[in-house]
Amino acid sequence: MKRNRKELIVVGDRVLIRAEDGQERTSVGLYLPPTAVDSQAVQGGRIVATGPGLPMPDPGAVSDEPWRTGARETRFVPMQARSGDFALFFRKAAVEITFEEERYLVVPQAAILALVRDPDEEFDF
Length: 125
Prior knowledge:
Layout: E1 2-3, E2 6-7, E3 14-19, H1 34-39, E4 42-50, E5 54-55, E6 76-77, E7 86-90, E8 95-99, E9 102-108, E10 112-116
Antiparallel strand pairs: 1-2, 3-4, 3-9, 4-7, 5-6, 7-10, 8-9
């Protein structure tokens, strides 16, 4: 994500989320029970950026000569979350950051409970 001249790069299997304030009903129409909102166990927000995913080990790296290293392109397990999705996630797993005076949450993909994707909407972050 770029802002001004700085670039915020999300690494690994993490996503950058612009969080919504705790409400019973989210902007995409999901209903959150009062117990989840009150305890802040579950929160929702719009995904701004995603990391590349988890790096995959090279299956050809197993050999009789472990000291040999060959150049290979790093491959990643693809992310299920995409920019523009609405994510419902566990709040305790999130880390709050401020970038260019805006508040975001960095959340591991494993903490995301559900995604809402509208293929007709386009977002410009």
